[in-house]
Specification:
The protein is an alpha/beta fold. Helix content is 38%, strand content 14%.
Length: 312
């Protein structure tokens, strides 16, 4: 698979990564055996960057990913995140960061985390102090690169002044383009981008269903894209994108991922799937290209999306 460089500090990863949130969190019950098979199949197909967080099962997601990657640890990069209380409120208190990162190292079964993110901005703690603690782990050899997620331009600048930020992780897809407002600051500072939820929480997977068909604790029960007042408009967007995908002889998910790759040379989407077949489909998106007319058509269709994205 193609490789992409994230930031100016030397982090190089596969053009498509793997987001492990759904293995233990947000999208209903999973099967650990199937998830491990999907993760290992992703690596077999050239994926070298794997993303998780403390939040994803409060350590269970990290343990699952660490176990899956243990035989090939030296061939991959692993990203994880800190920054929440167990009631999902921001928590980047400095001692909490230290405790969480040490726990993440144990959960992942590794001596070093390749990429450490603050998961969400905490208005109670200056970002300079947060990055100062993150920098301690870099200096100790326990973290290689630093990143921020779910933040704004001011915090990016303030953080980068303390220690180089290699990656901004943000939701980005045909359905969620708000983060394009941050492109100027990451360009100025030389920060790479990782796109989470690149298939719009499943709306661009090719298998979207009404929210009534999902489990009660499924995150899509609360997302505006699935709200009844937005459903017809958003499924019409999907229909138009599906038509274009069929013309190109690719799947909708492949088209959606390839569109992200076409936006910038320093952006890496991290789709997640517990199904090895879906993983293979996603990886193939790295080979899809577009004409300028096709990109314009996707852009026009995307303007029909209704409802705001989630904030984290």
């Amino acid at each position: 698979m193609q490789q992409r460089t994230l930031g100016r500090q030397g982090l190089v990863v596969s053009a498509i990564g793997y987001g492990a949130m759904g293995t233990t969190f947000a999208y209903g019950p999973g099967d650990d055996t199937e998830s491990v098979a999907a993760i290992r199949h992703a690596h077999d197909l050239g994926v070298t960057h794997f993303d998780t967080a403390e939040l994803y099962g409060w350590g269970s997601g990290e343990r699952l990913l660490g176990a899956a990657l243990a035989p090939i640890r030296d061939q991959v990069t692993i990203a994880t995140k800190f920054g929440f209380t167990d009631t999902y409120a921001p928590n980047s208190q400095l001692d909490h960061i230290r405790d969480v990162v040490d726990a993440s190292l144990r959960n992942l079964g590794t001596d070093s985390i390749d990429l450490l993110y603050q998961h969400v901005h905490d208005p109670q703690v200056p970002v300079e102090d947060v990055v100062g603690v993150m920098q301690e782990f870099v200096q100790a050899g326990k973290v290689r690169y630093l990143g921020l997620s779910n933040t704004d331009a001011e915090n990016i600048r303030r953080a980068h002044a303390v220690h180089p930020i290699s990656v901004l992780q943000t939701e980005y897809s045909v359905f969620a383009r708000e983060s394009e407002d941050l492109f100027p600051v990451v360009d100025e500072l030389g920060i790479g981008l990782v796109a989470y939820s690149p298939l719009a929480r499943g709306f661009l997977s090719g298998a979207v269903r009404p929210r009534s068909t999902y489990a009660e604790d499924d995150i899509r029960q609360w997302l505006e894209w699935w709200a009844p007042e937005n459903w017809d408009a958003n499924t019409a967007v999907v229909a138009g994108l599906t038509e274009l995908a069929a013309e190109k002889d690719v799947s909708l998910s492949q088209l959606a991922l390839a569109w992200i790759l076409a936006q910038r040379d320093d952006i890496v989407p991290i789709p997640g799937s517990r199904n090895p077949g879906r993983v293979a489909e996603n990886v193939t998106a790295a080979d899809v290209t577009f004409t300028s007319d096709e990109l314009a058509r996707i852009d026009a269709l995307g303007r029909g999306v209704r409802g705001a994205r989630a904030t984290s």
